[in-house]
């Protein structure tokens, strides 16, 4: 009996310890998020039941609750721990109220509209469709999740790092006694991606265990944290400029900004930086900056490697539309491969939210007289054409306000083409361009600025655009083609076969094709003589690359007053991509890629369009907009494009690199590769040695030098991999940006995962200097 009582007493005691541990963790994490005592955070931490929807017949209650780290959502079946699963708030791309996903619209009735909401994830993870018990509860879930996610996204990298390390410590504290034993310390180090030998772990433990009691507690854990997070490279830089009683004065900081960062700043701006970044109020009052304040400055978004001036639209947007590179997607409706993968309106939303400005709609006759979108003659699923147009209408201008081109691959009967035209006109309304801007026949494209918030249709047209103003100028309609017809004609010519019959075109659909009429390409000379500015050709990647390599200057001149769209070869059934850089070098505007496929080519696309406020439009260099241009990226003769730069990069260190394969017990052995993309003369890459067993704070201090001859067209890509001597290295993260968006000096480089999403605490620290060649 006494034994049972002791067990119960010990059990109650352990419960109290665990509760105290949990409350302390919640207070710390809530404080970091700026949400201590916040009712929305409290609601999520309490959790509640929600109905999870997978199909008409599969609807089951699940309990959802935010864990004490304030970032992991935990859910279980009927509150049974053994069936618990989780995901992090960092995995969430968006939370949408109402029946906005295909699943909820298909599997639920309108009656639950106010109680339904969806959680959409980054990458290829399926949506989570949920129904709350009341409309008020649904609103609370949506607003609370959005609030916590918003606060988490507002943390700088230093704060995210602190949050991550603290919660790794919590996980290592297995018995939740708020103390760290030697065994727990080793477990923690392994968890944060550091492998140390027993002697070093013992030395580190004994150095912090000042009470000699065999575990770390309170101030001792803080001391351990300080040793762990010490950045020796930052100490060295700070010490070189901290000339005022061991601290940085505003003048000291100004000296650093001018000599190291090569920034054009004043003393008042240096004082402003101290006021924003310094955490010590006493130092701030004296206009001094401590080492912690200096580190905070280096982690600020405006201090990173990407020039903050390029975060907004800074280029001239009043040039004709064809003077810009345009972010473009191929077979936008597909979520995966080209043969049997799902089609989804969500694919359009994802592309548009990534600033894609040209999306493709592959249209076929559907049942019930409603046109559908899918990859014809394959097992890919189908979506209604009108649903795709509705999704495009809603999300087209959330990331960028500049025009969206709808590229139609039309395989429909005349009757369903009429319905396509009706849906676009009725759904897109006045945003759809249905006649040329102005009251007379234009001689060139309108600008992105003039077309803000508007939709353009690319497709076949029965007659010349001039017919709108002069009925007698009808012209020939037979020349208008779709991309697939162009491709089929090429294949027929190669095999000496008859060309396939052309599809009949509905006048209603033809009439809304204004600035982007699809036509055959019969050579550069014919295009110059016979085609109007609004008549554009599409090129399969192989043909386009051949033209870019063998007739580069002709291609550039063609693209000065015409639009060109490039699309992947039909053999890419896995939705892989081609290298877009040679096509950009040739002045091609609409270089369409499979946005659904994570790959280095999509990294380059994301990097190219990172600048100019992520508007999806990048003004081409002047020599790609000049009809008399002599520029040839292959031969690279002398001209305004030659601006020889010498790029010096020192890869100093990395921080908090994640272990990508969670099943592997080994620690990351990271290496860094710096790659240059651009004209052939600029293409280069250099790689550091790998660091064994340290993904937490590896240090390289390796110097690289690159010659860049055409910086306007160059991209710089930083890649981090986990070295493997027996197989291919494993990708950890990357960051790509235009050469002309680089900031000089000591800079942190954020890292993106394979899907192009930020790795919250991970990054590189480099020194960079781009200088004019002598």
Description:
The protein has 774 residues and is α+β, with helices and mostly antiparallel strands. It folds into 5 domains: 12-154, PH-domain like; 158-229, Recoverin, domain 1 (Orthogonal Bundle); 232-303, EF-hand (Recoverin, domain 1), CATH 1.10.238.10; 321-468 and 480-488 and 501-624, TIM Barrel (Alpha-Beta Barrel), CATH 3.20.20; 645-772, C2 domain (Immunoglobulin-like, Sandwich), CATH 2.60.40. Helix content is 32%, strand content 22%. The strands form 6 sheets. The chain has an 11-stranded mixed beta sheet. Strands 4-3-2-1-7-6-5 form a 7-stranded antiparallel beta sheet. It has a 4-stranded antiparallel beta sheet with strand order 26-23-30-29. A hairpin with a 5-residue loop joins β1 (48-53) and β2.
From the helix content, strand content and strand pairing, which structural class follows? alpha+beta
The total domain count is: 5
Average of per-residue pLDDT values:
90
Report the sheet with the most strands, covering strand number, pairing sense and barrel closure: 11 strands, mixed
Distance between the termini: 90 Å
Unreliable parts: 1-10
Count of DSSP H/I helices: 23
Strand order, sheet with most strands: 15-14-13-16-17-18-19-20-21-12-22
CATH architecture of the largest domain: Alpha-Beta Barrel
Number of strands: 30
Summary keywords:
EC 3.1.4.11, PH-domain like, seven-stranded antiparallel sheet, alpha+beta, Recoverin, domain 1, PLipase_C_PInositol-sp_X_dom, 774 residues, 23 helices, single chain, 30 strands, 5 domains, disordered N terminus, eleven-stranded mixed sheet, 32% helix
